[in-house]
Amino acid sequence: MPPSCTPRRAGASCSAPDRCARPPAGSVPRVIQHVAIEVREQDAEACADFWALLGFARVPAPETLAARSLWVQAQDTQVHLLYAEQPVVPAEGHVAVVVEDYDATLAALREAGFEPAPRTQHWGSPRAFVRCPAGHRVELMAFAP
Known about the structure:
Elements: H1 17-20, E1 34-39, H2 44-53, E2 57-59, E3 69-74, E4 77-83, E5 94-98, H3 102-111, E6 117-119, E7 127-131, E8 137-141
Parallel strand pairs: 1-4, 5-8
Antiparallel strand pairs: 2-3, 3-4, 6-7, 7-8
């Protein structure tokens, strides 16, 4: 194990040394690196295709998680699609995404059969909600508040 790798559990080893090196304390801004949502395994590919419309590409999950999840990523943010026989889909909870080209993204979603619903522009940004193939709400924004 590289000296810069600090496993989270005592006795654990680093399975991905290239990802284990930690930057100096205080040098990384606090960000939400990923969200995890539950989907039926048979819906995972359709969900990945949905996220691709929002600019997220498939990335390999670590070998130890690959059999139970599918991962997508845009820049430094990931969405982990966790396989569940009976996924929990919150009625109002959602993931919010600032998309590169708001109008083009909505058009692509509509062309793919999704129905983004515009919402009030609370901070002046166009925004809409849409449901992914697994039923999760996703908020789309032209820019963040």
